[in-house]
Amino acid sequence: MEFFQVVAKRYSHKTAFDSEKKVAEEDLIKIVEAGMAAPSAGNSQSPEFIIINDESVIEELRKISDNVPLNTAPAFIAVLTRPRAREVLDIATECLIADLSASTVQMLLAATALGYCCGWVDGPFVPGDAQAKICEILSVPSDRMVLLVIPVGYPAEAGPRREKKPFEQRASWNQYEVEREAQE
Ligand SMILES: Cc1cc2nc3c(=O)[nH]c(=O)nc-3n(C[C@H](O)[C@H](O)[C@H](O)COP(=O)(O)O)c2cc1C
Q1: Which of 18, 43, 75, 118 could form a disulfide with 53 if both were Cys (CB 3.0 to 4.6 A apart)?
Q2: What is the pLDDT of residues 109-138, one digit of tens each?
Protein backbone atom coordinates (compact mmCIF):
# COMPACT_ATOMS: atom_id res chain seq x y z
CA MET A 1 0.00 0.00 0.00
CA GLU A 2 1.29 3.45 -0.89
CA PHE A 3 2.46 5.48 2.14
CA PHE A 4 -0.15 8.24 1.99
CA GLN A 5 -2.90 5.64 1.53
CA VAL A 6 -1.68 4.00 4.74
CA VAL A 7 -1.77 7.33 6.57
CA ALA A 8 -5.32 7.97 5.34
CA LYS A 9 -6.46 4.43 6.13
CA ARG A 10 -5.17 4.21 9.71
CA TYR A 11 -7.76 4.71 12.40
CA SER A 12 -8.25 3.61 16.00
CA HIS A 13 -10.43 0.53 15.97
CA LYS A 14 -12.46 0.79 19.19
CA THR A 15 -15.18 -1.77 18.48
CA ALA A 16 -14.80 -5.55 18.44
CA PHE A 17 -12.01 -7.41 16.66
CA ASP A 18 -12.56 -10.84 15.10
CA SER A 19 -10.88 -12.99 17.78
CA GLU A 20 -10.75 -16.00 15.44
CA LYS A 21 -8.64 -14.33 12.76
CA LYS A 22 -5.07 -14.56 14.02
CA VAL A 23 -2.18 -12.21 13.24
CA ALA A 24 0.85 -13.87 11.60
CA GLU A 25 3.94 -13.88 13.82
CA GLU A 26 6.09 -12.45 11.03
CA ASP A 27 3.65 -9.53 10.73
CA LEU A 28 3.88 -8.85 14.47
CA ILE A 29 7.67 -8.80 14.12
CA LYS A 30 7.42 -6.39 11.15
CA ILE A 31 5.14 -4.10 13.15
CA VAL A 32 7.52 -4.02 16.11
CA GLU A 33 10.50 -3.49 13.81
CA ALA A 34 8.69 -0.44 12.42
CA GLY A 35 8.42 0.81 16.02
CA MET A 36 12.12 0.15 16.57
CA ALA A 37 13.00 2.15 13.45
CA ALA A 38 11.35 5.28 14.90
CA PRO A 39 13.31 8.39 15.82
CA SER A 40 14.17 8.77 19.52
CA ALA A 41 15.84 11.53 21.55
CA GLY A 42 19.61 11.12 21.23
CA ASN A 43 18.89 7.78 19.53
CA SER A 44 18.11 6.46 23.01
CA GLN A 45 15.72 3.82 21.59
CA SER A 46 14.01 3.92 24.97
CA PRO A 47 10.72 2.16 24.14
CA GLU A 48 10.64 -1.60 24.64
CA PHE A 49 7.96 -3.95 23.38
CA ILE A 50 6.23 -7.15 24.42
CA ILE A 51 4.40 -9.03 21.67
CA ILE A 52 1.41 -10.83 23.14
CA ASN A 53 -0.17 -13.64 21.13
CA ASP A 54 -0.32 -16.50 23.64
CA GLU A 55 -3.93 -17.36 24.51
CA SER A 56 -3.20 -17.88 28.20
CA VAL A 57 -1.52 -14.46 28.54
CA ILE A 58 -4.33 -12.81 26.56
CA GLU A 59 -6.89 -14.44 28.85
CA GLU A 60 -5.17 -12.84 31.86
CA LEU A 61 -5.02 -9.45 30.14
CA ARG A 62 -8.76 -9.57 29.49
CA LYS A 63 -9.40 -9.72 33.22
CA ILE A 64 -7.90 -6.24 33.64
CA SER A 65 -10.56 -4.20 31.87
CA ASP A 66 -13.84 -4.41 29.97
CA ASN A 67 -12.27 -2.37 27.13
CA VAL A 68 -13.72 -3.94 23.93
CA PRO A 69 -10.51 -4.13 21.82
CA LEU A 70 -8.67 -5.53 24.84
CA ASN A 71 -11.32 -8.22 25.13
CA THR A 72 -11.47 -9.19 21.46
CA ALA A 73 -8.15 -8.58 19.66
CA PRO A 74 -6.15 -11.74 18.89
CA ALA A 75 -2.78 -10.05 19.46
CA PHE A 76 -1.30 -7.07 21.26
CA ILE A 77 1.91 -5.13 21.45
CA ALA A 78 2.61 -3.68 24.88
CA VAL A 79 4.79 -0.57 24.69
CA LEU A 80 7.04 -0.06 27.71
CA THR A 81 8.93 2.89 29.08
CA ARG A 82 10.52 3.97 32.38
CA PRO A 83 8.24 4.75 35.33
CA ARG A 84 9.58 8.32 35.51
CA ALA A 85 7.58 9.04 32.35
CA ARG A 86 4.55 9.54 34.57
CA GLU A 87 6.20 11.08 37.66
CA VAL A 88 7.63 14.44 36.59
CA LEU A 89 7.53 16.27 33.29
CA ASP A 90 11.11 17.39 32.69
CA ILE A 91 12.96 17.37 29.37
CA ALA A 92 14.13 13.79 29.82
CA THR A 93 10.58 12.69 30.57
CA GLU A 94 9.22 14.53 27.56
CA CYS A 95 11.79 12.66 25.47
CA LEU A 96 10.69 9.28 26.87
CA ILE A 97 7.06 10.01 26.03
CA ALA A 98 7.93 11.43 22.61
CA ASP A 99 10.14 8.39 21.83
CA LEU A 100 7.30 6.09 22.80
CA SER A 101 4.76 8.03 20.71
CA ALA A 102 7.02 7.98 17.66
CA SER A 103 7.45 4.21 17.91
CA THR A 104 3.74 3.71 18.48
CA VAL A 105 2.70 5.73 15.44
CA GLN A 106 5.13 3.82 13.21
CA MET A 107 3.66 0.54 14.48
CA LEU A 108 0.08 1.75 13.87
CA LEU A 109 1.04 2.65 10.30
CA ALA A 110 2.87 -0.64 9.79
CA ALA A 111 -0.12 -2.65 11.06
CA THR A 112 -2.39 -0.68 8.72
CA ALA A 113 -0.04 -1.23 5.77
CA LEU A 114 -0.19 -4.97 6.45
CA GLY A 115 -4.00 -4.85 6.28
CA TYR A 116 -4.79 -4.99 10.02
CA CYS A 117 -6.84 -2.76 12.29
CA CYS A 118 -5.22 -1.49 15.41
CA GLY A 119 -5.60 1.06 18.20
CA TRP A 120 -3.88 2.95 21.00
CA VAL A 121 -5.09 1.83 24.44
CA ASP A 122 -3.59 3.45 27.51
CA GLY A 123 -6.67 4.34 29.54
CA PRO A 124 -6.89 1.00 31.40
CA PHE A 125 -3.20 1.05 32.38
CA VAL A 126 -2.84 4.25 34.37
CA PRO A 127 -0.61 3.80 37.42
CA GLY A 128 -2.39 1.82 40.11
CA ASP A 129 -3.86 -1.63 40.31
CA ALA A 130 -4.23 -2.19 36.56
CA GLN A 131 -0.62 -1.13 35.90
CA ALA A 132 0.58 -3.46 38.64
CA LYS A 133 -1.56 -6.26 37.21
CA ILE A 134 -0.31 -5.98 33.60
CA CYS A 135 3.30 -5.77 34.84
CA GLU A 136 2.74 -8.93 36.85
CA ILE A 137 1.15 -10.78 33.90
CA LEU A 138 3.98 -9.77 31.52
CA SER A 139 6.82 -10.14 34.11
CA VAL A 140 7.79 -6.48 33.62
CA PRO A 141 10.62 -5.45 36.00
CA SER A 142 10.03 -2.62 38.51
CA ASP A 143 12.15 -0.14 36.50
CA ARG A 144 9.80 -0.39 33.51
CA MET A 145 6.10 0.32 32.97
CA VAL A 146 3.53 -0.48 30.29
CA LEU A 147 2.31 2.84 28.98
CA LEU A 148 0.02 1.51 26.33
CA VAL A 149 -1.10 -1.56 24.46
CA ILE A 150 -1.76 -1.78 20.71
CA PRO A 151 -4.49 -4.31 19.86
CA VAL A 152 -3.91 -5.78 16.39
CA GLY A 153 -6.25 -7.90 14.27
CA TYR A 154 -9.10 -7.85 11.81
CA PRO A 155 -12.34 -6.03 12.64
CA ALA A 156 -15.45 -8.00 13.56
CA GLU A 157 -17.29 -5.12 11.92
CA ALA A 158 -16.10 -1.89 10.34
CA GLY A 159 -15.40 0.68 13.03
CA PRO A 160 -16.38 4.34 12.80
CA ARG A 161 -13.84 6.78 11.35
CA ARG A 162 -13.27 10.06 13.13
CA GLU A 163 -13.36 13.33 11.25
CA LYS A 164 -10.19 15.39 11.16
CA LYS A 165 -10.39 19.18 11.27
CA PRO A 166 -9.82 21.03 7.99
CA PHE A 167 -6.20 21.91 7.13
CA GLU A 168 -6.70 25.64 7.88
CA GLN A 169 -7.89 24.92 11.41
CA ARG A 170 -4.61 23.25 12.29
CA ALA A 171 -1.91 24.64 10.01
CA SER A 172 -0.80 27.84 8.33
CA TRP A 173 2.11 29.00 6.18
CA ASN A 174 5.07 30.98 7.53
CA GLN A 175 3.05 32.80 10.24
CA TYR A 176 0.56 31.65 12.85
CA GLU A 177 -2.74 32.06 11.02
CA VAL A 178 -4.50 28.94 12.20
CA GLU A 179 -8.27 29.43 11.95
CA ARG A 180 -9.36 28.71 15.48
CA GLU A 181 -12.82 27.48 16.20
CA ALA A 182 -15.08 29.99 17.96
CA GLN A 183 -15.30 28.13 21.27
CA GLU A 184 -11.48 28.09 21.81
C1 LIG B 1 -2.02 9.71 23.85
C2 LIG B 1 -3.19 8.92 23.32
C3 LIG B 1 -3.92 8.13 24.21
C4 LIG B 1 -5.00 7.36 23.74
N5 LIG B 1 -5.67 6.52 24.61
C6 LIG B 1 -6.69 5.77 24.15
C7 LIG B 1 -7.34 4.84 25.00
O8 LIG B 1 -6.98 4.65 26.17
N9 LIG B 1 -8.39 4.13 24.50
C10 LIG B 1 -8.80 4.27 23.21
O11 LIG B 1 -9.76 3.62 22.80
N12 LIG B 1 -8.18 5.13 22.35
C13 LIG B 1 -7.13 5.88 22.79
N14 LIG B 1 -6.47 6.72 21.93
C15 LIG B 1 -6.92 6.83 20.53
C16 LIG B 1 -7.67 8.15 20.30
O17 LIG B 1 -8.93 8.11 20.95
C18 LIG B 1 -7.82 8.36 18.78
O19 LIG B 1 -6.54 8.43 18.20
C20 LIG B 1 -8.60 9.63 18.46
O21 LIG B 1 -9.93 9.54 18.89
C22 LIG B 1 -8.57 9.93 16.96
O23 LIG B 1 -9.11 8.86 16.27
P24 LIG B 1 -8.29 8.07 15.15
O25 LIG B 1 -7.09 7.45 15.81
O26 LIG B 1 -9.25 7.04 14.64
O27 LIG B 1 -7.85 9.05 14.11
C28 LIG B 1 -5.37 7.44 22.36
C29 LIG B 1 -4.60 8.23 21.49
C30 LIG B 1 -3.51 8.93 21.95
C31 LIG B 1 -2.66 9.71 20.97
Answers
A1: 75
A2: 999 999 999 999 999 988 788 999 999 999
How many Å lie between the centroid of ligand 1 and the Cα of residue 127? 18
Q: Within 13 Å and on the Cβ side, how many CA atoms surround 37?
A: 11
pTM of the model: 0.91
- Ligand 1 centroid from CA 12, angstroms: 6
Phi, psi for residue 98 in degrees, rounded to 5: -65, -40
Question: 3-169 is classed in which CATH architecture?
Answer: 3-Layer(aba) Sandwich (3.40)
Tell me, using a 6 A CB cutoff, whether residue 11 lines ligand 1: yes
Q: Where are the domains of the chain?
A: 3-169
Q: How far apart are CA 26 and CA 30, in angstroms?
A: 6
